[in-house]
Structure to design on (614 residues):
């Protein structure tokens, strides 16, 4: 762990990612205490450009964009982690089960995974979210379901690799129960690549949920979710670009920070690349 | 090769069957009575009954699935709730528009992404490499709708160099022969039609290509870095081959093979991104059609478009595998 932190510290891009993420976290934790309500309408102050009083301007309802951004950031950062968390649990459960059990169960699970991976991710997420009904929770579930097969694939291949190791044979020979072997030996030893997958997926979870919000399938007004805010302000983007660009750039920064960190983690878990970079 | 093709096609059957089950299940996932939800609160009992009959909702689930698959076999993807037209013909009408910008975007992405990846890998940890890594990470992190909006603002609204949206200037009358604006513009012989089609394509193609070029650049860089550490590359160097010969004659060829898979898979993913891009640029393809269907809760269209996207995805994967086997003798031997 100390070695990993040392490696990340020497990786400039990872540090840039950590810096952006730290700044975003600070903004969404402290910011809401300093700004007005994100839903406070002031029709006398609509579409004001950035300036004193409204540092990022106001939208077509006169709502303060800075306030909407710092409140919306709470949703966005939580969305990334919760969506990946759900996808991780579902995917790893079925992936490890498939890899460890083998036989017909492996075939059935992996064919379902193949079928789900036969859809462009965003298309399947859109179709599921449209079926479940438009809401932030449903959009998050839709994205998590779409993402789970990726975890299942990685988990299965890791479980297969780990299952053939001597210490797993030894655990079997000792008569340890299957569940214990799965959790104690297979899962623990397969966790590295899964964590890389998870860290790389947080960014795309945010991006996809924001895209669903943009299409009207995610957060509903007046919730200050960034993707939905870009969409809501699109009609005013030419005359008052700050209304749509603010939340758009906020999504970019959040996704970029996770991708920078995820990228460095991927380098760390790939020994050949680690030696080339480190 | 023939045996490989047959085996690959046979392996598609169970996956295709499951894809059909997933698409079929979509309408059945709608909470409550799908017919009532789809028609909205103002629907009469007879309208609800008619839709239930159209979607076979009164039958047992397995029979519903059978009807669905039997309909598909005859090219029946259902009827749009909004227009009353068959979904398949509506999709086929819009498919060329989506393919036109997607294919152009793949070409642009390959031409931009590959050299960037190679240059980056041959100068690891240099200023250029860091710049490319930051730019490509920004590319994959950028929401398509943000990039689209930025390009529209800069090149259409502020500079006035390119059209904001649409597919062809409104004063041009071009017959829809092939559905591809470039080809139709050329066939029409109308002055300025090809130029207009090209100008309209630039922004949406850039948005679609940005993600793919960034992904491809990152991938080529990573595989090149790995290949450059391989024994045979070291042997080539030891033989006294020049740096250029080693990189372009040996390492690049090996690194580009896996890149074909990435281009194939990301092309299919890009089709999904077309929903956002087409919506912002009012590009009349399947993506925008799907967006309008979401707005209207036109579920047969969402279902049909989802299936078409999945079929395009599977077809692309199949083509990639075939191409891979053609190009890599090791894969062919393994498949025998």
């Amino acid at each position: 762990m100390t070695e990993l932190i040392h490696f990340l510290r020497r990786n400039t891009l990872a540090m840039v990612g950590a810096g952006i993420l730290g700044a975003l976290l600070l903004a969404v934790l402290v910011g809401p205490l300093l700004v007005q309500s994100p839903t406070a309408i002031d029709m006398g102050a609509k579409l004001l450009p950035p300036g004193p009083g409204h540092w990022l301007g106001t939208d077509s309802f006169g709502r303060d964009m800075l306030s909407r951004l710092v409140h919306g950031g709470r949703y966005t950062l939580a969305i990334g982690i919760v969506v990946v968390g759900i996808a991780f649990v579902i995917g790893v459960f079925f992936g490890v089960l498939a890899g460890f059990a083998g036989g017909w169960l492996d075939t059935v699970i992996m064919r379902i995974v193949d079928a789900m991976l036969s859809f462009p991710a965003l298309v399947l997420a859109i179709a599921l979210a449209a079926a479940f009904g438009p809401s932030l929770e449903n959009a998050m579930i839709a994205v998590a379901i779409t993402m789970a097969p990726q975890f299942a694939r990685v988990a299965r291949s890791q479980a297969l690799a780990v299952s053939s190791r001597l210490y797993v044979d030894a655990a079997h020979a000792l008569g340890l129960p299957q569940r214990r072997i799965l959790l104690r030996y297979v899962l623990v030893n397969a966790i590295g690549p899964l964590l890389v997958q998870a860290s790389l997926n947080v960014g795309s979870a945010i991006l996809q949920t924001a895209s669903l919000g943009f299409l009207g399938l995610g957060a509903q007004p007046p919730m200050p979710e960034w993707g939905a805010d870009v969409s809501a302000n699109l009609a005013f983007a030419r005359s008052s670009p700050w209304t749509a660009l603010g939340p758009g750039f906020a999504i970019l920064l959040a996704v970029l920070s996770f991708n920078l960190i995820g990228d460095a983690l991927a380098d760390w878990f790939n020994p050949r690349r680690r030696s080339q970079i480190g | 090769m023939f045996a490989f093709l047959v085996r690959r096609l046979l392996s598609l059957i169970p996956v295709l069957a499951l894809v059909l089950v997933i698409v079929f299940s979509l309408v059945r996932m709608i909470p409550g009575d799908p017919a009532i939800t789809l028609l909205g609160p103002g629907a009469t009992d007879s309208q609800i009954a008619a839709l239930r009959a159209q979607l076979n909702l009164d039958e047992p689930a397995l029979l519903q699935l059978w009807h669905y698959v039997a309909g598909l076999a005859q090219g029946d993807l259902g009827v749009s709730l909004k227009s009353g037209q068959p979904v398949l013909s509506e999709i086929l009408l819009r498919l060329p528009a989506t393919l036109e910008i997607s294919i152009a975007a793949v070409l642009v992405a390959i031409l931009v992404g590959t050299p960037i990846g190679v240059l980056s890998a041959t100068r690891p940890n240099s200023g250029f490499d860091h710049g490319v890594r930051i730019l490509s990470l920004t590319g994959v992190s950028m929401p398509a709708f943000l990039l689209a909006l930025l390009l529209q603002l800069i090149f259409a609204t502020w500079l006035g160099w390119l059209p904001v949206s649409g597919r062809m200037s409104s004063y041009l009358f071009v017959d829809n022969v092939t559905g591809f604006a470039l080809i139709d513009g050329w066939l029409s012989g109308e002055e300025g039609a090809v130029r207009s089609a090209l100008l309209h394509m630039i922004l949406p193609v850039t948005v679609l290509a940005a993600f793919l070029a960034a992904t491809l650049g990152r991938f080529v860089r990573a595989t090149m870095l790995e290949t450059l550490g391989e024994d045979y590359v070291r042997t080539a160097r030891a033989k006294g081959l020049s740096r250029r010969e080693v990189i372009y004659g040996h390492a690049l060829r090996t690194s580009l093979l896996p890149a074909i898979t990435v281009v194939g898979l990301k092309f299919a993913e890009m089709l999904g991104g077309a929903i956002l891009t087409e919506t912002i640029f009012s590009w009349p393809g399947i993506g925008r059609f799907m967006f309008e269907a979401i707005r209207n809760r036109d579920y047969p269209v969402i279902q049909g478009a989802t299936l078409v996207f999945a079929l395009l995805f599977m077809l692309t994967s199949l083509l990639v595998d075939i191409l891979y086997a053609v190009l890599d003798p090791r894969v062919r031997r393994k498949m025998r």
